[in-house]
Each structure stands twice: as C-alpha cells, then as structure tokens.
Automatic annotation (TrEMBL):
Stretch forming the signal peptide: none
UniProt keyword terms in alphabetical order: ATP-binding, Helicase, Hydrolase, Nucleotide-binding
Species in which this protein is naturally found: Xylaria bambusicola
SMART domains on file: DEXDc, HELICc
Entry-linked PANTHER family: ATP-DEPENDENT RNA HELICASE DBP3 (PTHR47958)
Database matches in Gene3D superfamilies: P-loop containing nucleotide triphosphate hydrolases (3.40.50.300)
Keyword Mitochondrion in annotation: no
Motif (Q motif): 51-79
Single GO term (MF): nucleic acid binding
Catalysed reactions, semicolon-separated: ATP + H2O = ADP + phosphate + H(+)
Family: Belongs to the DEAD box helicase family.
Protein name, entry field: RNA helicase
EC number: 3.6.4.13
Record-linked Pfam families: DEAD (PF00270), Helicase_C (PF00271)
Length: 479
C-alpha cells in the first residue's frame, strides 16, 4: 500500500530543491497584497510578516526539516502567508502567487505545525490535488520537510493506493477528490478528527470539469453525516463548517469569478495575491513561433529537438490522441521522446514521471494533466504546441492554463524559455489576448531564419538569468 513516502521524489516536488538559494530568490522583489478578513481585523494584532522561520514559533522538528533543505528564510509569499495561517484561532486562507514561489512549502509547514503526531493513526489533515502526479509530489514534500518528526505518516488517497479492505490510518492524507470521496463513502476514511482541509490548484479544483463538484461533495462528506443528501451548490456547505476547521486554498491563478466562489468555500478567509502584471515568472523568456500552417508545426517541433535537450523540456498539446500521435511520429523519426496523459494507468504514469524527473527521459509530451504544480528542476523549455483554449468548441483563450504551463520552467530563480506555436488567425488572436491579459510582450521567432532562432533560445537557456521581455514584438500587450 502506497500510503507513506519512504523517500521524496527527486525534486521533492515544488519547493524543496531549488530553495537552497532561498535568500537570493528574485521573487522577493515584488509585493504581495494582503486582505485581512473582518474577523482578523477585529483582532488586536495582525501578525504581519515573518522574515525568518524562527519568528514563527514552528516546532523544532519542522525547523530542522526546513534547515536541512536549506530554506534560509521565507519567500515573499511564505513571509506573508505563514503568520496568518499559523495564528490562533485558526483562520481560513486564500493564497495566490506565481508558480515556483513556495506555496507548497507554505501549506505543508502549516499542516506539520498543526497536526498532533501523538495520534499518528488519526487523520487530521486532508490535502487535495487535481492529479495523482501532484498528489504524489505533495506527499514527497510533506515527507521531506517532516523528515525529523517522530511518527510522521502520510497516506496517499489516489487510485490504487488503498485497497478496499484497508483504511486510512495516517495523520496526513494527500489525495485526489474522486478517490477521497470513495474512501469516505466506503467508511475507510474517518474524517471526524480533521483539523485542516487544503486544496492545491484551487481555481482548477473549484471551477473546471467535475472537480469543483467533487470538491464540494468531499467537503460535504467531511462536514455532514454520510447519510445526509450531498449538496451541490457551494454555498450550502458554508454553514456546515465547524469553527475549528481551517481551510487553505492555494493556486497560481484566481480568476475573479472563482475567487468570489472561493470566499464562500472558505468563509472569512484572509487573502493574499499578486497584481496581474506580476503573475508571470521573471525568469522565463516567453516566445512564439509563427508557423506557416497547422501541418508545419510538427516539422518545426522536430527542428527544435536539439534545443529541447539542453536541459529537459515539456511539450503541451490539446488531446491525448495528438500527444500519442506526435510522440510516435517523433520516435519513428529518430527522436527520443516520452508521452504521459490520463489514458495511462496510475502505475505507468508514476513510472513515466519518475523517468522524467531523474533525466532518463528528457523530452515529455503531455496534456494539461501536468500543467499544474509539477516541478522538475531541469526543465528549461516549455512548448505550447497547441495554444490553451477553453469553452465550448475552444471558443476562448485560456490565460490561466497558459500561466500554469509556462510555470513548469523558470522555477525558483532558474532560467527558462516558453515557445507557443501559432498557425492561423484564431491562434494568433488567442495569444495576443493572453499577452494583453498579462500585460507582456512576447519575442517573435522565425521559422525561416533557423540560425537566429537557435541563437535567441540558446542565449536564454545558457544564460544565468532569463529575461521575460528582451525585445518588443508583434504580439503583446505592452507595459
């Protein structure tokens, strides 16, 4: 039973590796806006910021874990969020900050500080993620930061991890909504002692597909009796929350309508967020390739293959079918490329991602299943083979998914390149709209001058610091 992380993944997911240079993080230069809840405002003390982990009153074992990872001081989002999340009585939190700035470590530190490990078999914290890959990664971060805690146990509530006859018997549970719902319904998961509910990639979890409904149902199952009819509307759950339960919602993006929804899901929450123009990662040079037509994208992708192998690269496509088709074609043409998407069984997905983390595979084609949260320190390039769209018939550009995709590179002060393919008026207009939303300019690459294209990309990947905008271009929102 995969209910405990014996060893963290190679990159300890999000914020463990790469945080060694925490005191030099460029992300500390921007401002984090804090909106205190009315309840917090009534307190005599807003706690403000913490410039060292020692100021937070963390358990010694948690401080040891942070020190072992060379977290020298809190990142900007951590120094604002942690004092509020650790305050007593516990307050709900909605936190939005760009990818790679320490969100996972922030909520994991809070969880490890709140849980009573003298009761190691009683579930006390539930952490939800939209994919098994992200859930496993968070599980690894918990195990790594909590490595000095006696009786630390982390249960993985993901498909195939807990058999029907088993039970969830760890203090911390990390899982996906569907599996958690099944475990609760089958009386394998006793939620009566939960102190914290954490939702990572919360905008995705509360809005898209069936995940929002599943999260609401999980919340209902946690705070209602199992025999009560499940409410589908989020507002029906607000009155069911005991005051002792703390809800933490984290994401790199929170569209306004989802943020409004989130404030009902996590009532009276403190909110921290960035301004829109500060959402893009400064370490990523964002480029686009104007392909003559849809049929030319594959040939141009193959020409980029040599640049993809300078570090490692992720290629995002629209569908599982196109991911598999492109991977098969590239392998047939002599390129070493792997593919990962939701059609693969859980164990296959785990193995494929582990191969990519360890460098056995350096180029990975995937769908949006890996767009959020996944951290591999060597990723130097992200290619949007298909521009992210949303709505019926891909009616509208998807700025949030674009941000999450490119956030797979340029993490924690590292350099990175993102290249988005456009091939017709629709994709051009979509990328132009994304650039306008983010108030950025993108660097144009020409398929007709390959020497110059290679020079521009290599200059970034081999530099010590990428530039988000080095030249003005035809596609952009300006500053």
């Amino acid at each position: 039973m995969a209910d405990q992380a014996a060893q963290a993944p190679a990159d300890t997911g999000a914020e463990a590796n790469g945080a060694a240079a925490a005191s030099n993080l460029q992300e500390n230069s921007y401002d984090v806006e804090v909106q205190l809840s009315d309840l917090q405002k009534d307190e005599a003390h807003p706690l403000g910021s913490a410039t060292t982990f020692q100021e937070l009153g963390l358990p010694n074992e948690v401080l040891e874990g942070l020190n072992a990872l060379k977290f020298l001081k809190p990142s900007k989002v951590q120094e604002k969020a942690l004092p509020l999340m650790l305050a007593d009585p516990p307050r709900n939190m909605i936190a939005q900050s760009q990818s790679g700035t320490g969100k996972t470590a922030a909520f994991v530190t809070t969880v490890l500080s709140r849980v009573d490990f003298s009761q190691p078999t009683k579930p006390q914290a539930l952490l939800l993620a939209p994919s098994r890959e992200l859930a496993r990664q968070i599980q690894g971060v918990v195990a790594t930061i909590g490595q000095f805690i006696p009786n630390l146990g982390v249960a993985a509530a993901i498909p195939g991890a807990i058999p029907r006859g088993g039970s969830v018997d760890k203090a911390i549970v990390v899982g996906t909504p569907g599996t958690v719902m099944d475990l609760i319904r089958r009386h394998q998961f006793d939620v009566s002692g939960l102190r914290l509910l954490v939702i990572d990639e919360a905008d995705n979890m509360l809005e898209q597909g069936g995940l929002g409904d599943q999260c609401s149902r999980v919340k209902g199952l946690v705070f209602e009796t199992l025999h009560t009819r499940l409410h589908r509307a989020l507002t029906c759950f607000a009155s069911l929350l005991p005051p002792t339960i703390q809800i933490l919602l984290f994401s790199a993006t929170f569209p306004e309508k989802v943020l409004k929804y989130a404030t009902t899901f996590a009532p009276s929450a403190n909110i921290i967020k960035l301004k829109v123009q500060e959402l893009t990662v400064k370490g990523i040079s964002q480029m686009y390739m104007d392909c003559p037509g849809e049929a030319d994208k594959y040939e141009i992708l193959c020409k980029l293959y040599g640049l993809m192998n300078i570090g490692s690269s992720i290629i995002f496509v629209k569908t599982r079918e196109s991911a598999s088709r492109i991977q098969q074609s590239m392998v047939r043409d002599g390129h070493k490329v792997s593919v990962l998407h939701g059609a693969y069984e859980g164990s296959e997905r785990d193995a494929l991602l582990d191969e990519f983390r360890t460098g056995k595979s350096k180029v990975l084609i995937t769908t949006n299943v890996l767009a959020r949260g996944i951290d591999v320190s060597t990723v130097s390039m992200v290619i949007n083979y298909d521009i992210p769209m949303k709505g019926m018939g891909d009616a509208m550009h998807d700025t949030e998914t674009y941000l999450h995709r490119i956030g797979r590179t340029g993490r924690f002060g590292r350099v990175g390149v993102s290249i988005t393919f456009i091939s017709d008026k629709k994709s051009f207009n979509a990328l132009q709209a994304i650039a306008g939303d983010l108030q950025i300019d993108l660097v144009a690459l020409s398929p007709d001058d390959w020497d110059e294209t290679e020079k521009q990309v290599q200059r970034v990947i081999k530099s010590s610091r990428a530039q988000a905008n080095f030249v003005p271009s035809a596609v952009g929102g300006g500053q």
